[in-house]
UniProtKB/TrEMBL annotation:
One MF annotation (Gene Ontology) recorded for this entry: proton-transporting ATPase activity, rotational mechanism
Keywords: Acetylation, Hydrogen ion transport, Ion transport, Transport
Protein name: V-type proton ATPase subunit C
Transport is among the record's keywords: yes
Function: Subunit of the V1 complex of vacuolar(H+)-ATPase (V-ATPase), a multisubunit enzyme composed of a peripheral complex (V1) that hydrolyzes ATP and a membrane integral complex (V0) that translocates protons. V-ATPase is responsible for acidifying and maintaining the pH of intracellular compartments and in some cell types, is targeted to the plasma membrane, where it is responsible for acidifying the extracellular environment. Subunit C is necessary for the assembly of the catalytic sector of the enzyme and is likely to have a specific function in its catalytic activity.
Assembly: V-ATPase is a heteromultimeric enzyme made up of two complexes: the ATP-hydrolytic V1 complex and the proton translocation V0 complex. The V1 complex consists of three catalytic AB heterodimers that form a heterohexamer, three peripheral stalks each consisting of EG heterodimers, one central rotor including subunits D and F, and the regulatory subunits C and H. The proton translocation complex V0 consists of the proton transport subunit a, a ring of proteolipid subunits c9c'', rotary subunit d, subunits e and f, and two accessory subunits.
Similarity-based family: Belongs to the V-ATPase C subunit family.
GO CC, alphabetical: lysosomal membrane; vacuolar proton-transporting V-type ATPase, V1 domain
Stored InterPro entries: ATPase_V1-cplx_csu (IPR004907), Vac_ATP_synth_c_sf (IPR036132)
Annotated Gene3D superfamilies: 3.30.70.100, subunit c (vma5p) of the yeast v-atpase, domain 2, Vacuolar atp synthase subunit c, domain 1
Amino acid sequence: MTEFWLISAPGEKTCQQTWDKMMAATTRTNNISTNHKFNIPDLKVGTLDVLVGLSDELAKLDSFVESVVKKVAQYMADVLEDSRDKVQENLLANGVDLVTYITRFQWDMAKYPIKQSLKNISEIISKQVTQIDNDLKTRASAYNNLKGNLQNLERKNAGSLLTRSLADIVKKDDFVLDSEYLITLLAVVPKTSYMDWQKAYETLAEMVVPRSTNLLFEDNDSGLFSVTLFRKAMDDFKHKARENKFTVRDFQYNEEEMKADKEEMTRLSTDKKKQFGPLVRWLKVNFSEAFIAWIHIKALRVFVESVLRYGLPVNFQAMLLQPTKKNMKKLREVLNDLYKHLDSSASGIIDSAMDIPGLNLSQQEYYPYVYYKIDCNLLDFKV
């Protein structure tokens, strides 16, 4: 399970007692979750008005930062392409896996100084993650363009003989070049019609050079045949070939153009390889930054919500619970029994589908204790 429940409950005589009580209820007898203390430092409280406003702002910031974290993770998977199974080992926070980072969470004093007001800290995070989001858009756009152009060229060099580039297939010797009267055409012939082609090609138009056809290349379905004829019979030949279900490719041998195509492909391929390493490094660093910022927002939300609910002086214990999948419902019931005295209106668990006038609950579940979910499963696919 990569889902965590970040909760808080008011300190009893001491915060340790609050912790012991929760541990006794969830692990001593029934082992329904793995628990960790979640350390939140002494932040500046500010006024009640500021806290109420901040509560809404942090909810929006939480959603935004989570979306950026997921975007960076997903883009990492897209960039790694065939090595997607390696994506998880690249999604680290401060050099450790996400579960370790969350369960051993320590506030980063250097990045988010606690002498600053809560509003300032949330603005620092907002600016930082907005910057990551903007940089991601720019970098992804440049890399995707490069990748798209390369894929288009690769597609031109693969696929059916009717559409693919012929630059790698034909050679100079296959053509009559620089002749005022003669021209070599290339026809795509279904494999089942080879005999028909051999019988018919000399008579599809006047002035076809006898025995001038050669099979140059085959794929699964068709063959590419050359045929030489007089230029003035070309239109007539193409028309008759089409009637016989042979397709004459619109192709002129041009060494310069073919060389330019090959060089372009080499250039794009080299550019992509060159950009790959720095891009993956950037994604790793900025995934870590965004994820760390996200968990700090969760800490801020727990702090603000706990002060708003449990009052001053600040006295609450933040706890991180990792429920086992089959015991989620049971854990919810145990927590409800343990904390229902905190808020009688929430003793029946309010479902996210219920709307209560005056309470903004339509977007989240409401419990008698402060609760936020952290889901570390950030990718749309299973690796």
